[in-house]
Write a structure and sequence with these properties.
single chain
Length: 272
């Protein structure tokens, strides 16, 4: 990979559709995939043709996955034995309609459950441009490749790269050894320190890398590779605008240098 593809013009209508559909798709593994304590089972992963769920085990011992196929422009519910159903993303389905169709598919395979409809309900008719979706696929595959290279270069406890249906962002976490403890009503809850690295394709798309806890006095003022910058309004971390690096010959290395620099600065603050 030499460059990051620019996001397509007029991306937002199709992006909003993909976001709504990802919530519908993610509702099924949230109930039926093997539960993970960090909720990875409710996320999607990047595959060559788009986004896919974790496997869901069927009553007969086979498995099923749901794929948002941005090449064929359909949502496919497929089993390991070769059975499948497809739902076109070009017909204007609402998020609720797609979720209902997938829930019916699951029931036909013997999967039933209590689905959290607040996660996906939407009655808005959706626009979907196949050419725009193809452009997004090129971008997210390139970003996932870049993110994988950085992910695999890190030592320690590193999480999986996930596409989160809630925010429609691609991200993973590196975990420090520092633990934050909070007490409320006599109950103590522990949270591991962490540093994320992600990509948010909504609006003016950007990469982000945000340590938690954020030690501003140790980080703000430290130089980041241009044009990345620290961000402290609304949330604390750092950003690098996607359009500043997309299409540039040195764009991939700029993003990787940014991710390395934030990790270099933040990791020591997250260790016990």
């Amino acid at each position: 990979m030499t460059t990051l593809p620019p996001l397509p013009d007029n991306f937002e209508p199709t992006r909003a559709t993909l976001h709504a559909y990802s919530r519908a798709v993610g509702a099924l593994p949230r109930v039926h995939a093997d539960a993970h304590d960090k909720w990875w089972h409710a996320a999607l992963t990047v595959v060559p043709e788009g986004l896919a769920t974790d496997p869901m085990t069927l009553p007969d011992g086979a498995t099923a996955t749901i794929t948002m196929d941005l090449v064929a422009h359909e949502v496919k519910f497929q089993t390991s034995t070769g059975e499948f159903t497809v739902h076109s993303m070009q017909t204007g389905l609402t998020g609720s309609e797609l979720a209902d169709a997938l829930i019916a598919d699951a029931a036909g395979l013997g999967l039933t459950g209590d689905y959290d409809r607040e996660k996906f309900e939407s009655d808005e008719l959706r626009e979907y441009d196949p050419a725009v979706a193809a452009g997004f696929l090129a971008a997210i595959v390139a970003v996932n490749d870049l993110m994988t290279a950085h992910h695999d270069s890190l030592e320690g406890d590193v999480g999986r790269i996930n596409m989160w249906p809630h925010g429609f962002d691609l991200a993973f976490e590196w975990y420090g050894t520092r633990v934050e403890r909070y007490e409320e009503d006599g109950t103590v809850t522990e949270y591991p320190s962490q540093l994320n690295f992600g990509w948010y394709p909504t609006g003016d798309a950007y990469f982000y890398s945000n340590p938690w806890p954020f030690e501003g006095d140790k980080l703000i003022g430290e130089e980041l590779p241009s044009p990345a910058s620290w961000h402290t309004e609304g949330w604390e971390g750092s950003t690098l605008t996607y359009s500043d690096v997309a299409g540039n010959d040195d764009g991939v290395e700029t993003v990787r240098a940014y991710a390395r620099r934030v990790h270099e600065l933040a990791a020591p603050t997250l260790m016990a």
